[in-house]
Amino acid sequence: MEIRKPDEFEQELILKLSPQAVREGTAGESAPDANKTKKLIESVLQKGGCYWAAFEHDQLLGWSLIGKGKDSFTDKPFGFVYELFVVPAYRGKGIAEQLLHAVCDQLKSAGHQEVRLSVHAENSAIELYKKLGFTEKTFTMKREL
C-alpha cells in the first residue's frame, strides 16, 4: 500500500465519494449533496488543507483531508483531520490506522504539536481514535425541544 497526495484525477474521484463519507461519518444525520460537500472541502483546500490517500496498484482504498486550526481560547495552532474514510470494500484491513499515522506524521512535519478531529458520537471510528492515543477534549451536547 502507498500513502501519498492524490493527483488531480484521483482528487476528483475522492470529491465524488465525499458525500458518502460525510453521511457515514455523521451516522446518517447529514446527507449533503455533491455541491454542498464540494464547497465545504474547497474551503479547507483554499486555506492550505490537502488530501492524503491510500492506494494499492492505483486503486483508491481510502483518504484523509487535513488542514490546520487555531484554538479559539488560547490561539494555539493545531493540525486538524477533517475527514478520514476507507472505501467499504477495503475496511477491516488497517488502512484507516495507517492513514491516520501518515497524516499525523505530515502534520508534525508541518510544525504542529497537536492534532485534533471531530467525530460524531455514534461513529464506530471512536474506538480507533482512542486506540491511537486521541482523547476527548470537548463535548458538544444537545437536547431535543
From TrEMBL:
Protein name per its UniProtKB record: Acetyltransferase (GNAT) domain-containing protein
Keywords carried by this UniProt record: Acyltransferase, Transferase
Domain N-acetyltransferase: 1-145
GO molecular function: acyltransferase activity, transferring groups other than amino-acyl groups
UniProt cross-references to Pfam families, sorted A to Z: Acetyltransf_1
PROSITE patterns membership: GNAT
Source domain of life: Bacteria
Source organism per UniProt: Sediminibacillus halophilus
